[in-house]
């Protein structure tokens, strides 16, 4: 499905490889008309929840705390709290966060494995979610597929609005010796919007759509801190992946009689231009980690890491220094003090849309795209 021999090459007799493109390989093309940026809307709505900016903050401890989730909600985005992170393992996570930010590089992975071996406490799940809910914003939180069956009841009882199941690769048909999560049954029984990912192609995304996902995460997330390509040999060129999943979404829209599933680019969104390119390829929104880890309020204190960095058996990530560039407000909506695409990211998206002559995100998905590689 969606994979033709026209975009593949033979790398050896009997073995073909598909040609795929990253966000760095493409550019959006202005049309014959332009608009004023102030006349452009970046609103995004999933289910009953409307957001002023098409951005989800990644559920990573270096990015998300209850406080940063509240601030991102205030700015018009959606923060997703990691319910397997330090905030649900420690009463005061600022202590281990400070240690992670200050430890020597050669000890980082082993020590992080030790810190994250503390048990997840259901009472802390409830407490952290309540803190966000009491601020009056939309509450979103995530679990990995492996932990979802174990802790989802505590999560739902605590009262979240949107549930995110996020892993390096998620499928609706996991094959293994253990008891697998029945995704379709699980989503049906939850009765709240569920966003699931990551996926890398249209076939996998279509399975998740048919299982009832309200949104599909495309990519593996954590691009800036991932070593998945080096460790597993797995990588997702995001421009091709997002466009292919958007095509699967169109197929499912016809198949389901009009049920729209949101496509969310999760990974390789490091600069404001990447947001514009993701939406141009068909994404409804993006999930960001490292750009927000550079905020003064970020709990990572200038460092960034994902859950893969402290995997107990096979770490596939690392703690990386990202520094600090400004406040969350400056990074998302400005004003910017930098010309490298790291600040006023939504202002840049708005200007890109205006330059190309589009007034809203759905229209901008139809913008012309050029391949610039080679």
Structure description:
The chain starts with 7 loop residues before the first strand and ends with a strand. The N terminus is likely disordered. Helix 10 packs across helix 13. The strands form five sheets. Strands 6-7-8-9-10-11-12-13 form an eight-stranded parallel barrel, surrounded by five helices. The protein has one domain: Alpha-Beta Barrel (TIM Barrel), CATH 3.20.20. It is α/β, with parallel strands linked by helices and 374 residues long.
Write the layout of secondary structure elements.
Blueprint: E1 8-12, E2 15-18, E3 26-28, E4 44-46, E5 49-51, E6 55-57, H1 66-74, E7 78-82, H2 94-102, H3 108-115, H4 122-133, E8 140-143, H5 145-158, E9 162-166, H6 183-190, E10 194-199, H7 202-210, E11 215-218, H8 228-232, H9 238-255, E12 262-266, H10 272-280, E13 285-288, H11 290-293, E14 303-304, E15 320-321, H12 328-333, H13 345-355, H14 361-364, E16 369-371
Parallel strand pairs: 6-7, 6-13, 7-8, 8-9, 9-10, 10-11, 11-12, 12-13
Antiparallel strand pairs: 1-2, 3-16, 4-5, 14-15
Helix pairs in contact: 1-4, 4-5, 7-9, 10-13
